[in-house]
Design brief:
Elements (H helix, E strand, L loop, with lengths): L1 E7 L1 E2 L11 E2 L5 H12 L9 E6 L6 H13 L9 E6 L6 H9 L4 E7 L3 H7 L5 H13 L5 E7 L6 H13 L4 E6 L7 H4 L8 H17 L3 E4 L2 E3 L6 H7 L3 E5 L4 E4 L2 E4 L4 H6 L7 E4 L2 H13 L6 E2 H8 L1 H16 L3 E4 L2 E4 L7 H9 L1
Parallel strand pairs: 1-4, 1-11, 2-3, 4-5, 5-6, 6-7, 7-8
Antiparallel strand pairs: 8-10, 9-10, 12-13, 13-14, 15-17, 16-17
Helix pairs in contact: 1-2, 2-3, 6-8, 12-13, 13-14
Length: 367
């Protein structure tokens, strides 16, 4: 399966924790940027895709007309009329009925809304510009406009967050029909406002760990499957686009800073908006060719993120060969012996106690 990703690097303002490539106050450049993305798509003319994901940034800042221009332009070069899934990200403050009806009419069947919290004080401290009321309204509008798979992003560890406020966020969201939740523990990344000036009321790691387990328990009560480390879904509502990433599938990224992986080659567009718009076909592309052994280890690490599915090493050896697998198998068996992985025949899964420390496990998988 091959996925298509389009990066929209525009935001109203920069959240205090965000280290993604996005720019605030540049919305006057959106029209030209859409044209540049369509020009880049020409390079992949005729390529077919099974999933499409428009992310950012804040894709809902495109508005209905420019979103239609983007998708129409992509359709003129790429085969995207038989998608299994088409997702767009949106923020509550820029999501209205006109936009959502256009989302539905041009073929999107999934939306991911950047809620983060339903506590207005937490939202303000994080630099979010929407309110809890706007977030709930955006979700309800999405359902009313005929989009039946609605996801919300939720952050654990926001300044001032409490167990009670997080419980309230979760129960309100599932109460209005949410079908998918992406739940992330806040990390302070270099170059962010939080890194420059850490809030005094940031919850500690112990709070995050205990609350993560609580969140997982609550969502499971409501029928959500914990199918990936940070992702929960009702049956059949898993994100197919992201599953393709975690299964080591191919994808093409369009837009400034977007990454691609096809046929063992990986490349990434430079994170430079103006250079990209000047020449979207040659905007400082970085390329990396991955050998089979490295690719196998990376795919093993990604598949271990899938908590229900895990890693089937039989599939790996069919694709890459037994010789490349020998060293990886030793590392996996050591981790299983340390109770960090659970082994059942040829399948390995993260042990429940390793979920919150999975990065340490993954380092040992790929080294």
């Amino acid at each position: 399966m091959r996925g298509l990703y389009i990066h929209i690097p525009f935001c109203i303002s920069k959240c205090r924790y965000c280290d993604f490539y996005s720019l605030a106050g540049k919305t006057d450049l959106i029209e030209g940027y859409v044209s540049a993305v369509v020009r880049e798509a020409e390079k992949y003319g005729g390529t077919s895709f099974k999933t499409m994901y428009v992310g950012g940034g804040t894709p809902s800042l495109l508005g209905p007309r420019r979103l239609a221009d983007l998708v129409d332009g992509l359709r003129s070069h790429l085969q995207i009329d038989c998608l299994l899934e088409a997702t767009i990200e949106a923020n509550p403050e820029s999501t209205d009925e006109d936009f959502l009806r256009m989302v539905r009419d041009i073929g999107f069947n999934r939306i991911s809304i950047g809620v983060q919290s339903l506590d207005d004080d937490e939202l303000k401290k994080a630099g979010r510009v929407h309110s809890s009321t706007q977030a709930l309204k955006a979700i309800e509008l999405a359902f009313n406009c005929g989009i039946d798979n609605v996801s919300a992003d939720i952050i654990i560890g926001l300044p001032g967050q409490t167990v009670e406020s997080l419980d309230n966020t979760l129960r309100k969201l599932v109460g209005i029909g949410l079908t998918h939740a992406s739940v992330y523990c806040l990390s302070i990344e270099e170059g962010t406002a939080f890194a420059a000036c850490p809030p005094a009321d940031l919850p500690d790691d112990e709070f995050q760990a205990s609350v993560y387990e609580r969140v997982a328990g609550i969502l499971k009560e409501y029928g959500f499957i914990h199918y990936e480390i940070s992702n929960f879904a009702l049956q059949g509502k898993e994100c197919l686009h992201n599953l393709n990433y975690w299964r080591g599938g191919e994808y093409i990224g369009l837009g400034s800073s977007a990454a691609s992986h096809v046929g063992g080659r990986r490349w990434k567009n430079e994170a430079n908006l103006h250079a990209y718009m000047d020449d979207p076909l040659a905007a400082g592309i970085e390329e990396d060719i991955v050998d089979a052994e490295t690719k196998m280890a990376e795919e093993a690490m990604l598949r271990l993120r899938l908590l229900e599915e895990g890693l089937d090493t039989g599939q790996l050896t069919m694709r890459y060969g037994l010789n490349e697998f020998k060293d990886l198998e030793k590392r996996l068996n050591i981790l299983a012996g340390q109770k960090k992985l659970v082994k059942n025949g040829k399948r390995y899964k993260l042990a429940p106690g390793s979920i919150l420390t999975s990065n340490h496990v993954f380092v040992d998988v790929i080294k």
